[in-house]
Design goal:
It is a single chain. It is built from 10 helices and no strands. By secondary structure, the protein is an all-alpha fold. It folds into 2 domains: 1-33, no CATH class; 37-255, no CATH class. Helix 4 (66-75) packs antiparallel against helix 8, helix 4 crosses helix 9 and helix 7 (129-147) runs antiparallel to helix 10 (219-255). It is elongated and about 70 Å long.
């Protein structure tokens, strides 16, 4: 019952006529299951341990047609794409590694009255940014699931789509890392952070508009997409401090202050 809806009688990936569960032309499996929340959770161990081919293709596809790439993956065209959970874990891990090697900060003033918590936020906010987005992913997916209920996607499928979006957003900062390192301890870091916020808003709109409306312009589609992006940005801002506090407490419990 939960099998992916097949748009044609041919292969879901290449369109060639098929006679078995695997396409003899491109090798795509034809009977993928839809992404329920249970399936997403059971796929997490494999996402952490297994990294396969398709990364350059996925990055390029998400940059140019993010919504189309998500729809294709959810429809069953999966052999070409890097798996979404693998994608978000890999990009988040690479980002954290880079920003741990170079502690990037903007212009800082010495304040002897600064608490340990304030020093942590000031010095390590960028380092944990990708991890924060990963923690915020379920909430972002809940927002899109509620706001785009008419599109009939499961909550698990919203997790998949938003994981791709978060992974691609993280790649943006990975690519900007040389600039962050070059401008470390200057106002240039603050400028890059402002540009990052605009990128999140722009790419979020681009992704949702392409995913849910295939770029078909109408007042309703544009308005709802903008509302979804604003809702998620608001959610990210509101949840950032409590989640960062949780990270701070966990770090102190393991390593001490």
């Amino acid at each position: 019952m939960n099998e992916v809806h097949r748009p044609t009688q041919g292969c879901i990936a290449c369109g060639e006529q098929i006679s078995s569960e695997y396409c003899s032309y491109c090798g795509e499996y034809q009977k993928h299951k839809r992404f329920t929340l249970k399936k997403v959770i059971t796929d997490i161990p494999n996402a952490v341990m297994n990294f396969e081919r398709g990364l350059p293709y996925t990055i390029r596809r998400l940059a140019l047609r993010p919504g189309t790439a998500i729809r294709e993956y959810l429809a069953g065209v999966r052999s070409r794409h890097y798996r979404p959970l693998n994608f978000v874990f890999l990009t988040g891990g690479l980002y954290t590694l880079l920003f741990s090697l170079v502690r990037v900060q903007g212009v800082t003033e010495v304040d002897t009255n600064m608490t340990a918590w304030e020093e942590f936020v000031n010095e390590q906010l960028l380092q944990f940014q990708a991890f924060l987005l990963l923690l915020q992913l379920p909430f972002m997916s809940l927002v899109t699931w509620l706001m785009f209920r008419g599109k009939k996607y499961y909550y698990g499928e919203h997790l998949i789509g938003n994981a791709y979006m978060v992974g691609e957003i993280t790649w943006y900062q990975i690519l900007c890392f040389p600039l962050y390192a070059l401008l470390n301890h200057t106002a240039g870091v603050d400028v890059l952070n402002i540009l990052y916020v605009f990128f999140i808003a722009g790419f979020g709109f681009f992704t949702y508009f392409d995913w849910f409306y295939a770029r078909k312009t109408s007042f309703g589609s544009i308005s709802l997409t903008i509302a979804a992006v604003l809702a998620n940005i608001t959610l990210v801002v509101i949840t950032a401090e409590p989640l960062l506090l949780l990270i701070y407490q966990i770090r102190n419990a393991i390593f001490g202050e």
